[in-house]
Amino acid sequence: MRTASGSGRTWFITGASRGLGHAFAEAALERGDRVAAAARTITPELFAERHAERLLTLPLDVTDRTAVFAAVARAAEHFGELDIVVNNAGTMSSGMVEEFTEAEARAQFEVNLFGALWVSQAALPHLRARGAGHIVQISSIAALSGFPSTSMYSASKFALEGMSEALAMEAEPFGINLTIVQPGGYWTDLYSTTANATPLKPYAQLRADLEKQWAENSVDSAPALAAEALLKLVDSETPPLRLILGSMVYDLAVDITHARLETWSSWEPISRSAEHPTPTPT
Predict the structure, then answer these.
(1) pLDDT in tens, 98-138
(2) Which domains does the chain have, with CATH numbers?
(3) Which of 153, 154, 156, 164 is catalytic?
(4) Is 8 helix (H, G, I), strand (E, B) or coil?
């Protein structure tokens, strides 16, 4: 049953206790929307008291599929509907490929891929029943390309985007939009809470070079700017499949795309020579 009046929409946002997720929730509440804010540790006190009637806080570990389905169902029952689902919960692991243990590698995927997958699966029946809705997958600059020391993080975000591209085509016939958002740097605690693999000595110089590069070239913005962009996205009648947030990410995406086009073009004869239709082998 709906617990608040108004013409605003209902959001389900994961990772809403801090960083981008909290900024998204605050922005939605400020304009009169209803928000089911989910996170491992979350309380109503994290939000302005004036929003209490339009806020539902849900303690949630997105890696627990059963808990995810229960939380989404509770949000839909509480507000009477779901309109926008934002898969923002995520973690970051740092380390060279050789340095990761099996447990560390799997843990990165549990949150960044499977957490978003469970939430998407749980939300789809509610959105399909309405014949409308918008799923927003918060990806990363790391999904544009793999970078040294971000291998598992990049891999999890690449996987998220591959799943989401397929989901976008599957959901479109039911009137459901999906957008993959690729943000650049924002002042969140993502970096301070990064899980680090045990470093191996041969990579010491590369690690030092990377730290120097990041210290000199880091560009970080206020999360509120990402929230403003998100509101414009969900208000659009024709939202894109992908949305880049930040000039640095935009320029990098263009450069990476051009480099790939040049490589594909230079190797085109070899690529085409590897295909020639033949009858089914007997």
Answers:
(1) 999 999 999 999 999 999 999 999 999 999 999 999 999 99
(2) 10-273 (3.40.50.720)
(3) 153
(4) coil
